[in-house]
Design a protein that fits this description.
This is Chaperone protein DnaJ. It is found in: Cytoplasm. One of its GO terms (biological process) is protein refolding. It comes from Amycolatopsis suaedae. Belongs to the DnaJ family. By secondary structure, the chain is of the alpha+beta class. The chain folds into three domains: 98 residues, DnaJ domain (Helix Hairpins, Orthogonal Bundle); 111 residues, Sandwich (HSP40/DNAj peptide-binding domain), CATH 2.60.260; 103 residues, HSP40/DNAj peptide-binding domain (Sandwich), CATH 2.60.260.20. 27% of the residues lie in helices and 24% in strands. The strands form six sheets. A four-stranded mixed beta sheet has the order 10-11-15-14. Strands 1-9-8 form a three-stranded mixed beta sheet. Strand 4 and strand 5 form a beta hairpin. Helix 3 runs antiparallel to helix 4 and helix 5 packs across helix 7. The longest helix has 17 residues. The radius of gyration is 33 Å and the shape is elongated.
Length: 391
């Protein structure tokens, strides 16, 4: 994509957020729009497919702090004049000069524009190179993000899942050339394949993207019927995703090179799989430790004993010391989460007294006898003392 095509887009408007939106706001907006316009949910809807591509491209820039900084700086320098703005020729202004080469190709002795060239270089696909630099420089593909939900046990032990993904990819019909099978793109005669043409305005000479080839350096006479000459089409593919043991809820897993394809031979972006873990009805988690709350009787705490506690693999026997308080947590070593790096957590067992809602006559009589026998034991001496002082 040429400098004019990229800078002329309003990525904030595509996502429906303000230019000072936080990264979380941008992420939420992208997820909402990507879900609404996903090709799987809008079969045959070309408008939704184009919107899906647009929001994916916008998120690829705005989610990357470095790219977003460069994009914002370019907006500030050129001014965001609405759709296709920034003062580029044919983009909201009538034939104004393209300043990208003025900044991008300035030499060390050209009056100090080198800093601007460095800022814009990342967006325009070059770093202030020589006058022969082309507009169709290789550009790395955008990163893609998708979501997957797994259950609690899969998160603890790890899993291998098939992931069905619809996303932009190299067109399988033309192999990414954009030309109809059996034909090839031809070098643009106007710009000689550079993608740029020069023109003079007063004492200055400016370069701008070639209008005949749209800055690509090549012309496609017979576009591919599948991708319409773009070299990229949306396709559905199935990937195998390995979820590592001990993955956390909302953690991202990176699959290198599985994002959008690059342009002009550049590498593809990455695919990030965000994992959502469904809660377990019995177990919880604290870091690498598993947690469980176990109801016990008053006598089990007062007299002590051994209770059976479930684990994800079976059960263990846990010794309850005599006189244990309700709410105390006992630790069972090595029965937590084991990660790929070998770190191992524990099972944390929290004991909670279960008070019966109803008592039969025998149980009531026994409790009343216990209450009479334990009158000498005051469970709240400090409070009793304070009450006595205020009476």
């Amino acid at each position: 994509m040429s400098a004019r095509e990229w800078i002329g887009k309003d990525f904030y408007r595509e996502l429906g957020v303000s230019s000072d939106a936080t990264s979380d706001e941008i992420k939420r907006a992208y997820r909402k729009l990507a879900k609404e316009n996903h090709p799987d949910a809008n079969a045959g809807n070309d408008k939704a497919e184009q919107k899906f591509k647009a929001v994916s491209e916008a998120y690829g820039v705005l989610s990357d702090p470095g790219k977003r900084k460069e994009y914002d700086e370019a907006r500030r320098l050129f001014g965001s004049g609405g759709a296709g703005g920034f003062g580029f020729p044919g983009a909201g202004g009538a034939g104004g000069p393209d300043l990208s080469d003025l900044f991008g190709q300035a030499s060390a002795g050209s009056g100090g524009f080198g800093g601007l060239g460095d800022i814009l270089g990342g967006l325009f696909g070059r770093r202030g190179g020589a006058a022969g630099a082309t507009a169709n420089r290789p550009q790395r593909g955008a990163d893609v993000e998708t979501d997957v939900r797994i259950d609690f046990v899969e998160a603890v032990k790890g899993a291998t899942l098939p992931l069905r993904l619809s996303s932009p990819a190299t067109c399988a019909t033309c192999g990414g050339s954009g030309a109809k099978p059996g034909t090839s793109p031809r070098t643009c005669a106007t710009c000689g394949g550079n993608g740029l043409v020069s023109r003079s305005q007063g004492a200055f000479a400016f370069s701008e993207p070639c209008r005949d080839c749209r800055g690509r350096g090549k012309i496609i006479d017979d576009p591919c019927p599948e991708c319409a000459g773009e070299g990229i089409s949306t396709r559905t593919r199935t990937l195998t995703v390995r979820i590592p043991p001990g993955v956390d809820d909302d953690q991202r897993i990176r699959l290198a090179g599985q994002g959008e394809p690059g342009r002009a031979g550049a590498p593809a972006g990455d695919l990030y799989v965000r994992v959502h873990v469904s809660p377990h009805p019995v177990f919880g988690r604290s870091g690498n430790d598993l947690t469980i709350a176990v109801p016990v009787t008053f006598t089990e705490l007062a007299l002590g004993g051994t209770i059976a506690v479930p684990t994800l693999d079976g059960k263990v026997s846990v010794k309850v010391p005599q006189g244990t308080s309700s709410g105390r947590t006992l630790r069972v070593r090595g029965k937590g989460i084991t990660k790929r790096d070998g770190t191992q957590g524990d099972l944390l067992v929290t004991l909670q007294v279960a008070v019966p809602a109803k008592l039969d006559d025998e149980a009531r009589a026994a409790l009343e006898a216990y209450a009479e026998a334990s009158k000498q034991h005051d469970p709240r001496p400090e409070i009793t003392k304070m009450l006595a002082e205020r009476s």
